[in-house]
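Morning!

As promised:
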Amino acid sequence: MSDTPPDPVRSRRDFIALLGATASTAWLATIWPPAIADAREAAHAVSQGQGPRYRALTTQQAEDFGAAADRIIPRDDAPGSRDVGVVFFADHLLGTFAPARKPTFDRALLALNEAARKRVPGASSFASLTPIQQDETLRSIETTDAFNLLRTITIAGYFSHPSHRGNRNEAGWKAIGFQDRMSWTPPFGYYDQPDVMARLMPWRRA
Amino acid sequence: MTRDVRQTPSVRYAPTDEVDFAIVGAGAAGGVVARELARGGFRVVVLEQGPYLRESDFKHDELLVSEGHQLTNIPSLQPQTFRKTAADKAERRDYIIYGRMVGGGSVHFTANYWRLHEVDFIERTRYGSVPGAALEDWPIRYADLEPYYSRAEWELGVSGLAGANPFDPPRSRPYPLPPLPIKPSGVLMEIGAKKLGWHPAPAPMAIISKPYRGRSACQHCGFCESFGCEWKAKSSTLATMIPEAERTGRCEIRPNSYVRRIQTDSRGRVTGAVYFDAQKREVMQRAKAVVVCANGAETPRLLLMSASNQFPNGLANSSGAVGKYLMFNGGAFAGGLFEHEVNGHKSVQVSRYLQDHYRLDQKHGIVGGGGIDMRFDWYPISFATDALPTDGPRWGAEFKRIVREYFTRTAYALAHTTQLPQEASTITLDPELKDAWGLPAIRTTFTEHPNDMKLYQFFLERNLELLNAAGATRTWPFSLDAPWQVHLLGTCRMGNDPEASVVDKFHRAHDVPNLFLVDGSSFVTCGTGQPTMTIQALAFRAAEAITGFAKRGEIPRSG
């Protein structure tokens, strides 16, 4: 048995509680087809070599959030947050179906920049820090609501359905071994292969 | 996207046309009652607050079901409050989650389909008086419900293996469909359980393993819990009962119809239901009788909102029991990391379960018990935010490494347990907060009984023991302070005594002879685990009784 005490705060519905409580009403009836169109439009713009245009974020917000997102899920042998469009996801989220979260997001970025200036007096922005300074800054606020919001949006953008503009080319899904399919057939993994089951579950042969 | 396009036109009734039955709620219970009453020859209108979605509306999109609340109640329109005790000031918190669409929670549920056992109906007799708990026997026994459990399995389509679980209560028929394939998590459960001397069995699931009654078999896409099934393989009422009800030509499913009040006449009899239509216009549907199947939170809320001069404390509430004894089932949850690929995201969430601890030995000094399954019910976003050990990194290179390492190699043990009924755990109307229609918000008051917490701890230890015995290289517990908020039970309890219960053993309101309440609110105790099957068996039984009453002229009318 693990010695880890159960965390008293987090629940399995944290994610929903954090983002969903004040989502605008009935967004899905009005937003769903545009959401898909937006994704196509964004992909088209990028493919044409055009710069990003944001709906809800300022350019500075996009830079600061993108820098934080890249420290939260950095690039390794799989793409990092910005590589898969997490900033576009955040812009889409806050510009369309959760605009009520925008003020909270704005405050989170203010808190991020305040922490950055505390770490590096006179720094112009979080984005201007070195990666090591950025990590130290994030560590200084990692128990705050501000950080949790940035973390949640980053994770959602990295792993959401690509129609929301993040998880570009399903790179987030590929990184963890998830594949969106309409059907699978057994064996689903290692343990349910017939020869493995025969070895591990001798009672099944009896 | 939200659409109300029907595949086949069904009958439509004018609101002024007095139908035989108005049913409030087209969910797990309402779908069954609608189909049974329509097949019995009655004219039925089902008023459902949510939309009428089709399989083509379902997507493998976590944001759609979480942020979008595509299949569930919508917090921004239907805010709620919560407090631990009546002495506290309730705070804004969306505590209750339920299916809000034609098909209700049967669309997005995991589809675990457990019968209750004999002991679940007689816990007062078994344990006597438990301090702080309102433990009572049900007015019916397992044997009374058994034929309807079997009917539910065959009418809806359930996969399982009769006789495989040695603790299963007696059954009159085998399952109509063989078990779904064992998953890696099921193999691990068998290995661990055998080591511990426990008795794992194929989990009974309301998901069809082979084609059944015109529906295609499960294709193992993995999007069951929280999602609607594109294949119609999950035996929701949307895929089964509702189309059969419509096919009678006597049942109208009316979506986007949010009932605000059950109307009564000067003699205290029900005359119909008043609802807001999609344009928020108030409409009164006249009916000879009303059946409320709105769930264990919305049913008591609707009765309380239907107070009148004759029923000052709420409709059918002379006992004062409406809204009391709220239960959810308790539980405990733990994770384990394994050496090889588990790939829990493929196929249904659960393939094995066990009930060795259905009743704990008296030496533990704990009332009740539970059942355990091994599962994987995460999707990529929820996995990264919430599935990992809480003492690990939450961001950065190491966090990413762990998410990538763990996603395909974890399995989880989940226990579903007893929760004791308490008078102080309630659904009431919030005195201040209103929903988007101006109606009083749901206010939940809930604190676990001390016995509940002991049970959770007991099962958390069993979960970890099981994962370790299965060969986990690492295990971790989840907080016990996060009760299930989706099994909504007990708030209009069934009983023989009109002074202590809301409905009789045939679900007729003691106070109102042409009003019936059929859903999780009827539960007297929450039972040891998964409630949906019992809700639907009760619905088959109630519908049969109501049909008999109506045919024999035993439902007095208004006027």
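Chain A touches chain B through 76 residues (CB under 8 Å).

Hope this helps with the figure draft.
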